[in-house]
Amino acid sequence: MLVRAHGGLAAATAALFLVSCELVAPLSGLSDDQDAASRQPDSSAAAYDAPFVVPSPDAASAGDSPAEGSGDEPIGSPAPESGPPDGGQDASIDVPVEAAADADAAIDAGPPPCTLTSCGARAVCVAGQCLPAHRVFLSSATYTGNLGGHAGADATCQQLAAAAGLGGTWMAWISDSASSPSARFHQASDAYRLLDGSVVAASWSALVSGSLGHAIDRDEGGHPPTGTTEVWTATNPDGTLAGDGCSSFTSGNHSAPTPAVGVAENTNATWTDVYLQFCDRSDHVYCFEQ
């Protein structure tokens, strides 16, 4: 009896299903059209842009970021800044700008000041600028009267200048039976100066006038002499031979003929001829650039 009743209920259910299918089928086309219409954009509706929230790395690693589509995204959260972090692109741009500024400053400052030896031949550094000049110095070393003649004395000046990095061509203010400064020197029209720029004489004419503008009291390194200030010359103030001595400066014997010497501290005529001196004495030499 229960089986038969269950069978009747199943038959009734199947019949009801068939009836519902017949009712739904005509409406299926209409439903599809309505769904398509509902998917068309409505221009009258206000557009709404949902904010895009980028979770922080810490939150993402900790599992605290809101799940996508969960509805937990915060509304109105500020968007991440688009600018570069500290030390990023802006810093890399600033570096070339600062370097350019430094380069401009270096150009504005001009070349570095000159030095004792940086100006080269026939020039001297004065107040940071190289000026044309014939340089003059007192030898740092001292020698007996055996200088090897005027040629040997010239070679001594050349060696001292080269060792000091001065460059140029140099001769000694020495006279012997074969030559004198008035005969072999270049007679300059520009100034004769110490290495520190001090003007010894404004020209050759001033040099042989009988007095100096400044004593020749600095050596090839720019230093004052130590010990004696006597200088071998055998030369008159006008650059001519004052009298042969030390056998034309080839002898250092005490008995050799005595030549005239000058004093490096003096600026009058005694800078070149003050008295006679024995040839075994050790004295300086004046050196002039040619």
Question: What attributes characterize this protein structure?
Answer:
7 helices; eight-stranded mixed β-sheet; single chain; two-stranded antiparallel sheet; alpha+beta; Mannose-Binding Protein A, Chain A
Structure summary:
This protein is an alpha+beta fold and 290 residues long.
Overview of this protein structure:
It is a single chain. The protein is of the alpha+beta class and 290 residues long. It has a domain at 123-289: Mannose-Binding Protein A, subunit A (Mannose-Binding Protein A, Chain A, Roll), CATH 3.10.100. It is 31% helix and 12% strand. It has seven helices and ten strands. It has helices at residues 2-38, 57-62, 89-109, 149-163, 181-184, 204-207, 246-249, and strands spanning 123-126, 129-132, 134-138, 170-172, 192-193, 199-201, 230-232, 260-263, 275-276, 284-289. The strands form two sheets. Strands 3, 4, 5, 6, 7, 8, 9 and 10 form an eight-stranded mixed sheet that branches. β1 and β2 form a beta hairpin. The chain is globular and about 55 Å long. The termini are far apart. The model is unreliable at 1-80 and 87-93 (pLDDT under 50).
